[in-house]
Amino acid sequence: METQIAKLIDGKALAEKIQQELSATITELQPQIGRPPGLAVLMVGDNPASAAYVRGKERACAKVGIASFGKHFPTETTQTELEEVIAALNQDERVDGILVQLPLPDHLDAVTLLHQIDPDKDVDGLHPINLGRLVRGEPGLRSCTPFGVMRLLQEYEISLEGKQAVVVGRSILVGKPMALMLLEANATITIAHKSSHSLENIIKNADILITAVGRPGLITAEMVKPGAVVVDVGISRVTDANGNNRLVGDVDFDSVKRVAEFLTPVPGGVGPMTVTMLLQNTVTSYSQRSKI
Ligand SMILES: NC(=O)C1=CN([C@@H]2O[C@H](COP(=O)(O)OP(=O)(O)OC[C@H]3O[C@@H](n4cnc5c(N)ncnc54)[C@H](OP(=O)(O)O)[C@@H]3O)[C@@H](O)[C@H]2O)C=CC1
Ligand SMILES: Nc1nc(=O)c2c([nH]1)NC[C@@H]1CN(c3ccc(C(=O)N[C@@H](CCC(=O)O)C(=O)O)cc3)C=[N+]21
């Protein structure tokens, strides 16, 4: 007995629509600015998942007309070498966005590197200035994944005003900025993490549940309030019963789809929006920088 109640939130479709709009914007701006927008993605080492994401980002850039200035460095690259690369990209007029793909090898200090990116080129929204702007509710470059989630909720006309929102996970990349954006939209927020007691009790009153952990099956139907909106940011690679490799989120999709009102799939939900918001941030930076 499979009764699906949940409407699926189609991140892939919205991502394609926004990418077409970005492409049109670039076509319009480029003759005035005299160059295409530019994005530099820095990747260190050979983490296969990171390599796949970076390829996806570069493919999306090519599709909308953003020039890639990506660089791939060997694992043993030093902190100083990377700092010099970032300093050069900060000065490079053709580059509107700089992203350091995380995680970095252990000998590198990611925080120090992120602080060195020109905040106006910080298309990942991870520089303290842009995070501070988010805390203050001021305009600024926003973290791509939570920004993409907000855009999805807006597209599906899901109202946040006064709603109980629970965010599971508190990373600087996803959980924390996610909670701040929901707060900015007047939701009442709760943030859960590893030390939280009784996740079930925290989640059970959530009208909006956003999970960004990376643990398959963490969220089951019994935990979810009937009629809730469930957004699954988690991505894990698992081998299924047939020996096939596939991507899954934190949500037990087959059970939760019977209780939630809206649900994002993995893949095809939040992931494509993350990439699209990176392109969006790059175009925002492009038009803002060229007005100076
Ligand atoms: N779809 C997309 O576009 C993106 C997906 N991701 C995916 O999202 C997931 C999270 O990424 P990221 O935030 O970078 O990961 P991190 O590992 O940095 O953070 C994971 C968070 O989950 C919390 N956590 C771990 N176990 C539990 C638990 N049992 N109960 C409650 N909370 C728990 C941790 O708590 P604590 O802080 O206490 O340790 C931490 O805050 C990953 O699967 C990642 O691959 C990431 C970026 C983009
Ligand atoms: N500085 C930094 N910024 C990031 O934004 C960042 C990062 N580092 N490190 C790793 C995580 C992960 N991440 C994803 C991007 C796209 C998909 C995505 O497009 N996923 C597709 C599936 C892609 C596939 O099939 O492999 C989907 O969910 O449909 C997923 C995850 C960005 N991250």
- What small molecules are bound in this structure? NADPH dihydro-nicotinamide-adenine-dinucleotide phosphate, 5,10-Methenyltetrahydrofolate
Mean pLDDT: 96
Q: How would a crystallographer describe the biggest sheet?
A: 6 strands, parallel
Shape designation: globular
Tally of strands: 12
Low-pLDDT segments, ≥5 res: none
Percentage of residues assigned to helices:
40-55%
Q: Span from first to last CA?
A: 61 Å
- With strands numbered from the N-terminus, the spatial order across the biggest sheet is 1-12-9-8-6-7
Q: For the CA atoms, what is the radius of gyration?
A: 19 Å
Strand-and-helix sequence, N→C? EHEHEEHEHHHEHEHEEEEHEH
> Given the structure, what is the number of helices?
10
> Please, what is the oligomeric state?
single chain
Q: Please identify the structural class as seen in this structure.
A: alpha/beta
Question: Into which percentage range does the β-strand content fall?
Answer: 15-25%
InterPro entries: Aminoacid_DH-like_N_sf, NAD(P)-bd_dom_sf, THF_DH/CycHdrlase, THF_DH/CycHdrlase_cat_dom, THF_DH/CycHdrlase_CS, THF_DH/CycHdrlase_NAD-bd_dom
Family: Belongs to the tetrahydrofolate dehydrogenase/cyclohydrolase family.
Pfam family, one: THF_DHG_CYH
Domain Tetrahydrofolate dehydrogenase/cyclohydrolase NAD(P)-binding: 143-288
